[in-house]
Amino acid sequence: MSEATRQRIIQAAAEVFAGKGYRDAFTRDIARTAGLSEALVFKYFATKQTLYAAACAYLQEVQRDVVAEIDLTAPGQWLRRFALAVVAPDERRHDSKLAWAVRQGLLLQIERCVAPELPRHDLEGLLRPVIERGQALGQVRADIEPEVLVGVYWRFIVGCVLSQVVFPQSIPETWVEGFMVQMSG
Questions:
Q1: What does the mean pLDDT of the chain come to?
Q2: What range defines the domain where residue 90 resides?
Q3: Rounded to 5 degrees, what are φ and ψ at 25?
Q4: Res 79 pLDDT > 60
Q5: Which residue has the higher pLDDT, 56 or 118?
Q6: Closest CA to 56 of 128, 109, 132, 114
């Protein structure tokens, strides 16, 4: 079996699960998105649950890889760009791969609230080192504990994405700018 085909299936699954949710995503939709037959999908993944777990693991890996490449000399600026990329997606932005992975991850996390038996998809831990570095450099408020800032920052992003799911409209970039002013003190 080909690793390239396996990755193609996983990437398609991440997209379909995030777009339709676990219960409404069908393996035939994943196969169609990947440009493969449904039988081939089942050769690689015996169940929909194992495919979902692989999609979650893939998104976490993409996020870790991108976060590992962050230039930590300007974490405050990166946090701003990250929020803009997730909240107001634009394919021309540098962080579009990370934004895609985070948006898909958020949608999978939202799905987990509906179906708690599904694997946990934790994204908050990826932000902590960036916020801590920002505090050390004076680019992020140092008067608040890092875990509190991570929670506040993450909830702002989740709230924006949820509002876009419920009320399909774009979030004004000024919201992100105003929020980042508060983050930097």
A1: 79
A2: 3-184
A3: -90, 130
A4: yes
A5: 56
A6: 109
Give the Å distances, CA to CA, from 8 to 12, 48, 51.
6, 15, 12
Interval 50-76: pLDDT, tens = 998 898 888 778 777 766 767 678 888
- The whole-angstrom separation of Cα 136 and Cα 182 is 17
The angle subtended at Cα 54 by Cα 58 and Cα 150, nearest 5°, is 50
Tell me, what amino acid is at 93? R
Claim: this prediction has a pTM higher than 0.70:
no
Between CA 129 and CA 146 the distance in angstroms is 9
Angle at 26 between CA 23 and CA 32, to 5 degrees: 150
Strands (E), the chain: none
Domain count, the chain: 1
Our measurement of the distance from residue 98's CA atom to the centroid of its chain's CA atoms, rounded to an integer in Å, reads: 7
Q: How many CB atoms lie within 10 A of CB 25?
A: 22
Please state the rounded mean pLDDT for residues 143-152: 87
- Angle at the Cα of 62 (from 11 to 162), degrees rounded to 5? 80
CATH label of the domain that carries residue 122: 1.10.357.10
